[in-house]
Amino acid sequence: MGSRFENLWTCVKSEQNEARENFFTELFALLLTSNKKLCGEFVYLLFDKKESESMTEQEFFVETQLSFEDGRPDMLVRNKDYFVVFEHKVGAERGEMQLERYVKILEKNKGDRKAMLVYIDIEVPEDLEIGEICKQKEIGFGKFSWKQIWGMLKKLEKENKKTFDPAFKVLLKEFYRYMEVQGMDEFEGFSIRDLGVWGEFRPVVVKMMKILEALKEQLPKNFETGLLGKVDNKVNYYGCGIKKNGRDLVWVGFVDGDEMSGINLIVQVTKDKELLVNADQLLRRGFKHDNNWGGLSRIESLFKLAPPNLDKDEQKNKIINFYLDGIKQVTDCMKR
């Protein structure tokens, strides 16, 4: 197996569209090869087996940029008992019959080993029919989003952190940061794609927020509200944050208008800090998921709520229903 760093350099200097995908594959492979226990536990999760202790004692070989007669999968993880082929997508389209060709690779090379085809994409695709073909060939099949992979790695880190050496902890931390920048972590927030939907339906949003603002006047004395209106004269905050006896209960709304970037943001503002939650991937800095109001926030992407493939009425109804649900949460809080 060649140098992992040489493979990274090949990706960096490449002008091909798949360079970003190959670059991330090399980072992922570097992470798995740097910790035998993590690699074994990761394979264990993929197969959902109850044999993690024996598996993590085995050595797994992680290879990339492979070339078989039937195709070029992104990554192969194998040992004497397991043979797992990975296809990674980071924005690129699937090739014609690509996964079917990878099943042939597994058939020809797995021998007596347990085999699996693993497909990972930004979103979990609904149109994959390869699972039935794999079942017929007695080959496992798993499809995951990168957010799910993030969650799996976080789970393994929590279970095994005490065994990680300092160097690997640094590597893992930087890998997480890269996934965050690429929008591959578990949090769903605003992105640049929200701009079109926001511009079209901002009047609807403002109208619904006026309802929330009116509700604020009806809150009992032991409730507090978050900020409404301007934040540092730069950001318009359309929302209503509700507290009871100092405890965060619910937040619903959006923020738009960062004058410096011209990109819509969501910002959570408390007495002692301003927290950038998410915007375009390049602006996602300083966000900590465990500070996200106890997981009760109603921060969601307008693009996710009302993607352009819906007609205008459907988009509008999606957004209205989102706010109606938020209003219900606020009124439920008032009854507690």
Describe this entry's structure for a reader.
The protein is α/β, with parallel strands linked by helices and 336 residues long. It has 2 domains: 4-181, no CATH class; 194-335, no CATH class. The protein has 11 helices and 12 strands. It has helices at 4-13, 19-33, 36-47, 52-56, 98-109, 130-136, 146-160, 166-181, 194-216, 302-305, 312-335; strands at 61-64, 75-78, 82-88, 114-121, 140-145, 223-225, 229-231, 235-244, 247-256, 266-269, 274-278, 297-298. The chain has a 5-stranded mixed beta sheet, with helices on both faces. Strands 6, 7, 8, 9 and 12 form a 5-stranded mixed beta sheet that branches. Helix 1 runs antiparallel to helix 2 (19-33) and helix 3 packs across helix 7 (146-160). Residues 187-195, 225-240 and 253-300 have low confidence and may be disordered.
